[in-house]
Design goal:
The chain is about 40% helix and about 10% strand. With about 280 residues, the chain is mainly alpha-helical. The chain is elongated, with a radius of gyration of 21 Å.
Length: about 280
């Protein structure tokens, strides 16, 4: 059962695309489609250049020497995967692995800690194996189904908190795991998972953020009279304001601003060419 109108929640393509499965007798074109689907899912919808493709595992898969699951494992353990995601902060890397290999967000802090412990031991390959060899992977995808985003659907005995968190990780089929997101490599779910805090499920916009709750009180020299602090997410900075940056490159920033400084900060951001994508009381 899909939660709400898929077209409004940014998951319509996932909802309307049936799982990709290898079956005997697949044509060459169909096998290429499966390979592309594996790259798209495991690499978080990132573009893969021809020179980056894994020639040997692809050949083995085409000859039937690797199942879909083993091809997924090969992509996950590749230098290509490591170069894109392994330098993320620990919990960001773990939450992306959940997205890429199990198609959902982590359900609990215990899950996050278990995978963090594997990485603490310096065992990257074992971290990938822990998803691909899990009972959940086997029961959901088996040997021949390409993993897909599934955490946006409600399921029996599933975690509602994890369900809402999936919408923080996956917001629109055209976006990738790291790009088109003001969070970039910053963990999105760390405090939410630790505190088992569900998030609002909202229509996708230019950014996807933690929902506003009751504002925290700021104490100290920077406290405003009202004691409220606001989180401003900004994108769209260009070379006109920052001459050392290519005019085609955009920079994303987050600012924490006391209430009485909001107007001044708005003016500064707009003057520098920035676009405010959200203002949230924290």
């Amino acid at each position: 059962m899909t939660f709400g109108p898929a077209s409004r929640l940014g998951v319509s393509l996932f909802d309307e695309t049936p799982p990709q499965e290898w079956v005997p007798g697949r044509s060459t074109e169909e096998i290429e489609t499966l390979i592309s689907a594996v790259y798209r899912q495991v690499l978080g919808n990132a573009y893969v250049m021809e020179s980056e493709r894994l020639v040997v595992p692809e050949s083995q898969f085409k000859r039937g020497e690797l199942s879909v699951r083993e091809f997924v494992r090969a992509v996950g353990k590749s230098d290509l995967y490591q170069s894109r995601f392994a330098d993320c902060p620990r919990y960001r890397f773990v939450e992306l692995n959940f997205r890429h290999f199990l198609g959902r967000a982590p359900n609990s802090y215990d899950e996050m800690k278990a995978h963090s412990a594997i990485l603490d031991a310096g065992d990257f390959d074992s971290e990938i194996d822990s998803y691909v060899d899990s009972d959940e992977y086997q029961n959901t995808f088996g040997e021949n189904i390409v993993p897909y985003i599934r955490g946006y659907k409600t399921e029996a005995i599933s975690h509602m908190v994890g369900f809402t968190h999936t919408f923080q990780l996956v917001r629109g089929a055209a976006t990738s795991s790291l790009k088109a997101d003001v969070s970039g490599k910053t963990p999105k779910l760390n405090s939410l998972v630790i505190n088992a805090t569900a998030t609002a499920v909202v229509e996708p916009g230019s950014t996807f953020r933690n929902p506003a709750g009751s504002a925290r009180t700021l104490l100290g020299a920077n406290a405003s009279e009202g004691g409220k602090v606001y989180r401003i997410e900004v994108t769209g900075y260009r070379a006109k304001a920052f001459n050392n940056i290519s005019k085609f490159r955009q920079s994303n920033q987050v600012y924490l601003v006391p209430y009485d400084k909001l107007s001044q900060e708005y003016q500064r951001i707009h003057k520098q060419g920035g676009k405010i994508v959200s203002v949230t009381a924290i």
